[in-house]
Amino acid sequence: MNRFIKALLICAFVVATIGWLTYHDSSQSAPFTSAELAMFKSEDYVGSDACKDCHEDQFKAFSHTTHSRLSASSSWKGKVTGCESCHGPGKAHIEEGDPKKIISFKTKSSKEASETCLGCHAGKEEHNNFRRGEHWRNDVGCTDCHTAHATVSIGGNPGSNTFVSEAARRNADLLAANMLRGSEPQLCIRCHSETKAQFSRPFHHKVLEGQIKCSDCHNPHGGFELKQARLSTGADAGCLKCHADKQGPFVFEHAPLKIEGCASCHTPHGSANEKLLTRSRVRQLCLECHSNAHEIGAPDTPNFHNQATLRYQNCTTCHVKIHGSHVDRFFFR
Amino acid sequence: MKTYKRPGLLIAVLLLSAAAVDAQQPAPSPSPTAFDDNLGNYNVVSSLEVGVRGLSVSGNDNKYRSDLNYSNGVRLFDSSFFLRSREKTGLAFDEFLVNTSGWGGDPHGYTRISVEKSGVYRFDGSVRRSRYFNALASIANPLNAPIGQHTSNTRHNFSDFDLTGLPENRKLRFYVGYSRDTREGPGTTTARFGGDEYAIDSNSDTRANNFRAGIDASVLGFDLSLLEGARYFKDNSSYTVTLTNQGNNTTNTSRIDQLFRNVPAQGSHYFTRFSAHRLFAKKLDFTGRFIYLSGRTRYSFLEQTTGRLSNGNLALPETATASGETKRPSSIGDIGVTLLATSKFRISNTFRFDNFRINGEEPLLDMLRQRTNAGAPLATVTTISFFARTTNYRRFMNTVEADYQFNPSYSVHAGYRFTDRHIELANLDQTTTVATRAEEVDNQTHAAIFGFKARPVKAWTIYFDGEHGDADSVFTRLANNDFTNLRLRNRINANKQIAINVSFITKDNTNPADVITSPNVPFGTPPGALDVNVKSRHFTSSIDWTPNAKFSLSSGYTHMRVTSIAGILLPISNQRRVGESQYFSRDNFFFFNTFVRPTSRVTLYAGYHINKDNGQGDRVSPSNVILIDSYPMSFQSPEARLTLKLNRVLDWNVGYTYYNYSDKFFPIQNYHAHLPYTSLRIYFGRGE
Question: Which residue of A has its CA nearest to B551?
């Protein structure tokens, strides 16, 4: 193990040194490559108003976004803002009417398009790991979910009165705030379509109903956690944000609570089983671990727990405080 | 059981709504994206749907409430209120948005608020409420009671408020936030006394307050972020028995006459999160993060029980007290580096270190004042015991990944993950004797990650990714999980009118459990007898078709299949026997949602979804050591809604939702629920 740590430290040092030597710009800057920046001259920029004549719809929608207001912010003084901050200088494009004289994202890959966004957005804690996230890895980019022009599209069609649907107005309004292409659960389900079935089972977190959003538990922009899960209270599992009574610490903790995680016993999206358990009868859930098949922590089921009798088949009748107890080593109270 | 609740009110509103329809004036078709109404310097777009819902439940009302819990009466179905500055910026705010849903008769309601003034602040707030009801049959032991002995009828409130100062500032940003969640309400749980188990009353009362404040700054090219936070948690739940309770075993001698238990606990968690990010020369993306969390719980415990013990003596009462504390410091450190080697090739390394230590102790004093059943006094029995627990956990995890973009249509990625974990457990149990136990384990895992994205034609995108290796799971099984997870997703956008999604997900998980030589394991148990094999298969297909503004159809089918076979040891008649735990799920999910607008004033919506889990099918257990488990059930809901546009600001809705639940367990929990509703939606800012 010491060798591993040493190797890691050496790697980190080498990487940091290379980074330091090659440093000449900060992470927040105009989203162009150095080569592109060098080619551009200040007189090539004409301002967003010049784009309006031909791109009226985009301009109108864009003018109400936070992007369009950056020019009024003192910290962005002297920086290129507006249409040209992403599409590059527009003078040649306007003068010649040549679509090749402006940066278009139609032919760019998701990662290339994302790099443009990350030029400004990478510095926020929420977005810091996008370049290492699952979406990045699978070539899902920013513009697959967001629209930089913020087309306000308030769905006017009626939908379910219990489920949030794409057409339901309640979430479509959020488009204006977060520049999303659709309401959040629908956006995620568009690719993660199996979750719709999971969230429709009798016991489920109320995602389709709109009360919980996917991003309450997952960070779609990546993160250090597996499954891009969020943490709560600094370093604890995201589940504990709402299920605060399970956070402890308890004198007697059921080991999976902090070590294996809640998903050892629960299926968070939805289940036919009560309390989102992975088994419908609790004894199977317990016996699958407490069966002498462990290295540590899970004691064997005692002999007197006669599984031929109903009394011992419902483990949590006695082991009530199964997540953790302050006062009983067997989780009785 | 059949319940009808306030049908008169529903009928009255229906009649009023019908009268309003009769008085309508013709109007052109709606175009809800326009911003026509102004409020001062702001455009306003708002809608509010209020109405009334009826409810009729036949069958098991407890199961209905546990699943759905929609009630009848007046309801604010949903509302949104959106103000946007007509100019680029407004005086106090540029945008103001409030969304609500589910207040009134719904079990789940929320209000979300977002207010933003560019360059100055952004405020996000949410208040959520859940009425959580659980009174289900105990399928594990249906003989105890018609419903399970763990029930609840609680109310959870969650609220989050976050204020960001200078949100778009490139150099400096501030954060302040507050969250609160509470849970309170009655329920039942179980307690042990005198060798028997008893259903007892509980009253949940927990609350947590969270505070956080942070700052983002750009210093020397680094994006730095510091967040400080605290959570204060209180649990004042109590447990009581006020009437004589004979327990689950009514034939034995023990009983509880009265019980009072209170375990007030106060927790505090303080955390610091620091992160740094920088893109060096547009080539090297670096992110580092460190989190330190200090958690502590202080508790006291008082339990008084009067009743009769299993030996026939009377407890007058038995009193148990304890107080102590538990601490859990933990820290997480992460470093992520991505080298953008070329415009097409990237390689990244992510390293994590996390550890925590839990230290807790319980000094317990138990005094049993007792008499014989005839009333003769007996000596008080005093028991003093002390328990302590320590858990140490440390893990390193390192992931190396690379991805290559051949062109905008094709990319591949591959990676490798390594973990090293060390866990120590130490116990001290001091009763009449002292027992100590110390265990520790180390384990390492290796996993390969791979995948690609392909767009063979413009309309068709394929995503494939997989992981193969092992995962650490020492507490659940002897050896690491060997797993293979594969995902294949297809998105077909033939044109702007049709989107088709087809996905296939497989997860294979094997736990090769070496049989430990132990007196607990029956002699001759063959190797592999305690292995676990879990396989899940998900197939999903869906289509969204919107040929024009007057019609749309969304439909899909999902098959979810889980087969889990786990070798277990079952104690039967004081002898452990090797057996199997088998679990099956064969869930079929189908849905469709459609709307049609035959005229400019009339819109029809219809939806249907069904989950049908066939569970274990016709499998029956051949012996009492083979446990076969599943939850075969059917849960379906058709829904229809008619919307009439009365005028520019008013729509009238009438709709009906039906739920049908059935399973095959005893006692029967099937139900049918009919939920008719009518409502008015009022618009501000709806264009013509």
Answer: A157
